[in-house]
């Protein structure tokens, strides 16, 4: 399964067009959009053009409600697709997130669990320009307790890339500054960094 990881379009049509080209040319199986598409009009126009399975969450700039037979907009919940469980968390989640999340996923094999959020976990690809980490400690606790195969997020434009946290491959795929998306092949977790400029 080839998963395209994206976030933080911030209503840039050129980024949306490039991502659609990547989906077609790279033969992507699943699209992930980790929030901050922006306006409802932009979001719906873009997501309507995606003809593969997609999972999207809301960011701090938007509340994504668009769904169709391909796209699942989930801000708190789990959906199974092709043997994998996509645990999606948007803008609102409980203060005791780690405990609740571990309970929710207790019957799911960690190697089949893909965690999608807008915000990063604390200390992982979450640093501002001044070096200060601003991620969520509860997300980090969940990673350490459950050890999902993949955690995809955005929000922090300054610290994109990939990093391993134990068994979990973490991907900060905020597009707005980096102009880079990431393709993760499951189950092997092979990662390909894709420069959107090559698809514009």
List the main descriptive attributes of the protein structure presented here:
single chain, 200 residues, alpha/beta, Purple Acid Phosphatase, chain A, domain 2, six-stranded mixed sheet, 12 strands
Structural class: alpha/beta
Largest sheet: 6 strands, mixed
* Percent of residues in β-strands: 25-35%
CATH architecture: 4-Layer Sandwich
The coarse overall form would be globular
Q: Kindly report the spatial arrangement of strands forming the biggest sheet.
A: 4-3-2-1-11-12
In total, how many beta strands? Answer: 12
Helix content estimate: 10-25%
CATH superfamily: Metallo-dependent phosphatases
Order of helices and strands: EHEHEEEEHEHEEEHEE
Summarize the model shown.
By secondary structure, this protein is an alpha/beta fold.
What can you see in these coordinates?
Helix content is 22%, strand content 30%. It has one domain (2-199): Purple Acid Phosphatase, chain A, domain 2 (4-Layer Sandwich), CATH 3.60.21.10. It has helices at 13-25, 40-47, 97-104, 137-146, 175-178; strands at residues 2-6, 30-33, 53-56, 71-73, 76-81, 84-89, 113-117, 150-153, 161-165, 168-172, 180-185, 190-195. The strands form 2 sheets. A 6-stranded mixed beta sheet has the order 4-3-2-1-11-12. With 200 residues, the chain is α/β, with parallel strands linked by helices. The model has no long low-confidence stretch (mean pLDDT 97). Helix 3 (97-104) runs parallel beside helix 4.
């Amino acid at each position: 399964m080839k998963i395209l990881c994206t976030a933080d379009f911030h209503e840039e049509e050129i980024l949306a067009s490039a991502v659609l080209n990547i989906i077609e040319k790279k033969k992507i199986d699943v699209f992930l959009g980790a929030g901050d598409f922006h306006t409802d009009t932009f979001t719906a126009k873009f997501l309507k053009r995606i003809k593969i399975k997609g999972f999207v969450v809301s960011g701090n700039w938007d509340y994504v409600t668009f769904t169709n037979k391909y796209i699942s907009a989930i801000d708190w919940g789990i959906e199974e697709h092709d043997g994998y469980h996509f645990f999606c968390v948007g803008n609102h989640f409980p203060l005791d997130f780690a405990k609740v999340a571990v309970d929710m996923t207790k019957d799911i094999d960690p190697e089949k669990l893909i965690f999608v959020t807008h915000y990063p976990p604390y200390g992982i690809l979450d640093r501002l320009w001044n070096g200060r980490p601003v991620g969520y400690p509860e997300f980090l606790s969940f990673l350490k307790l459950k050890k999902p195969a993949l955690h995809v997020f955005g929000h922090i434009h300054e610290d994109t890339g990939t990093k391993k946290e134990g068994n979990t491959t973490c991907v900060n795929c905020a597009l707005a500054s980096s102009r880079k998306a990431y393709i993760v092949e499951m189950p092997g977790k092979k990662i390909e960094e894709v420069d959107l400029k090559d698809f514009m």
